[in-house]
Design goal:
- It contains twelve helices and 21 strands.
- About 35% of the residues lie in helices and about 20% in strands.
- α3 crosses α7 (about 185-195) and α10 crosses α11 (about 290-300).
- By secondary structure, the protein is of the alpha+beta class.
- It starts with 10 loop residues before the first helix and ends with a strand.
- The protein folds into three domains: about 10-235, 3-Layer(aba) Sandwich (Rossmann fold); about 255-325, Uridine Diphospho-n-acetylenolpyruvylglucosamine Reductase, domain 3, CATH 3.30.465; about 340-450, no CATH class.
């Protein structure tokens, strides 16, 4: 589980949090979570609340504004425009925020094609992430029943037993779910005592949606038979979160290229390893089925691919696993025009910035310049002296172990029709040593990625 470094609360706000021991139980519960936030950043801590207008988020917004002060809270409302009453819901949220003295930010959401429930969730969290500033923590109103539903949903989808995370990173800021240990009745009782109204979304009664079917048909039966089911599932989920957190610690320094030999041998352990590897890179919704298929492809062929949103991919080739954060940089496009590169100057090519630096003739990766140098992608007629023979780019990149999807965009440093260096991977044997009688000072270079 990716843990989050929360920002510090200013002294005035901490005084407000502490000075309310006679507040309602819900406010005391939220206050305890806010007091527990680690202190790392010097900026004053602010909060956002994801506000749908329903009972859960309404109770959270009201309580939070009273705990930390309305000036330290913003409400974020994502308008999916899926319901004919969505404009009325926006107006309701505006009235509530006006009464509380809280700023309301409204986002009109565009949903991607496909599963409406999943698309709406993705659009909502994208909106939250775009809004959050570095010193802001988003508070979400999920409670214990939501957690129970989530665990069952993930079991049905083959996505492990992991529950919703209590906290983590989101956009430039962080998120926190302070109500996960509370039942929905606590929130309804709080609102009733405060005489505050909320919205009931009629889509929550649509039992064609999996979550609603669980909520209205399955879970009531299970809870009637086993009243402590939610607490039992919570304990099991907490145990698994602990195991998950341990694996995160063990893998957090792992690079984006991993030899298959480093992975566990058993199928179950390998799946768990890959899941944590991807979670550390922000991918939390990969199914066990997808991971198993990736492993099958890896074992049966030379190439494997698992597409991840948005635009990322897990790739397998020649007994190595590669995580690619953005596959679009390798997409086939019109050939980049060769670009002249000179000592000390920065040259933009193939999506990155490159420069030539003077190098020690004894250092690895250095070469001498026979004349004007250019950056180019591979093209017909280019070759390089490699391992005692002149080879074309196709053979060269294969022998260097460059994955197929990276080859078209890989920068080659060329002089005339000869490759002097393949990116930062290899140097031509012809240009790795100075010719006899050539000056050595200031005439030996290396190609580096400019930062």
């Amino acid at each position: 589980m990716a843990m989050c470094a929360f920002n510090t609360l200013p002294e005035r706000m901490r005084d407000m949090i502490l000075d309310a021991l006679d507040a309602p139980a819900l406010e005391q519960h939220i206050r305890a979570h806010l007091q527990a936030l680690p202190q790392h950043q010097p900026l004053p801590q602010k909060f956002c609340v994801g506000l749908s207008g329903g009972a859960d988020s309404t109770a959270l917004l009201v309580a939070t504004s009273r705990i930390v002060g309305s000036g330290n809270v913003r409400a974020l409302h994502g308008d999916h425009r899926l319901h004919s009453q969505s404009a009325e819901w926006v107006a309701h949220c505006q009235r509530l925020c006006d009464e509380l003295g809280v700023e309301l930010v409204i986002g009109v959401l565009r949903l991607a094609k496909g599963n409406v429930e999943a698309a709406a969730r993705r659009a909502r969290y994208d909106f939250f992430a775009d809004q959050l500033q570095r010193n802001e923590t988003l508070l979400l109103g999920h409670h214990s029943q939501d957690q129970l539903e989530t665990v069952f949903m993930r079991l049905i989808q083959g996505r492990s037993l992991l529950p919703m995370r209590l906290h983590g990173h989101l956009g430039k800021g962080a998120f926190l779910r302070p109500l996960l240990a509370l039942q929905r009745e606590h929130l309804l009782n709080y609102l009733s005592a405060q005489k505050i109204t909320w919205i009931d979304d009629p889509s929550n009664c649509d039992q064609t949606l999996t979550r609603n079917f669980l909520r209205h048909r399955i879970l009531p039966l299970l809870l009637q038979r086993w009243p402590s089911l939610a607490e039992a599932v919570y304990r099991v989920a907490e145990w698994q979160l602990g195991q998950n957190g341990l694996l995160h610690e063990l893998l957090k320094e792992q690079g984006n290229e991993v030899s298959v030999a480093e992975l566990p041998q058993s199928a179950a352990s390998r799946r768990a390893w890959l899941r944590i590897f991807l979670e550390l890179r922000g991918h939390f919704e990969v199914t066990d089925r997808a991971l198993d298929e990736f492993c099958r492809q890896s074992q049966q062929g030379a190439a494997a691919q698992l597409d991840l949103a948005p635009g990322a991919a897990l790739m397998g080739w020649r007994d190595t696993i590669y995580y690619e954060a953005d596959m679009s940089v390798y997409a086939p496009t019109e050939k980049s025009k060769p670009a002249r590169i000179e000592l000390g100057e920065t040259c933009q090519f193939s999506g990155r910035h490159w420069t030539l630096k003077i190098s020690d003739p004894q250092a690895l990766g250095g070469f001498y310049s026979p004349g004007p140098l250019w950056l180019s992608t591979r093209r017909k007629g280019l070759s390089m002296l490699w391992r005692g023979r002149q080879v074309d780019t196709k053979m060269l990149l294969r022998e260097l172990g460059v994955p197929p999807w990276r080859r078209e965009s890989l920068p080659l440093l060329v002089w005339q029709d000869e490759i002097v260096a393949v990116s930062t991977l290899a140097v031509s044997e012809r240009f790795s040593d100075q010719p006899k009688g050539a000056a050595t000072k200031g005439s030996y270079y290396r190609l580096v990625v400019a930062h």
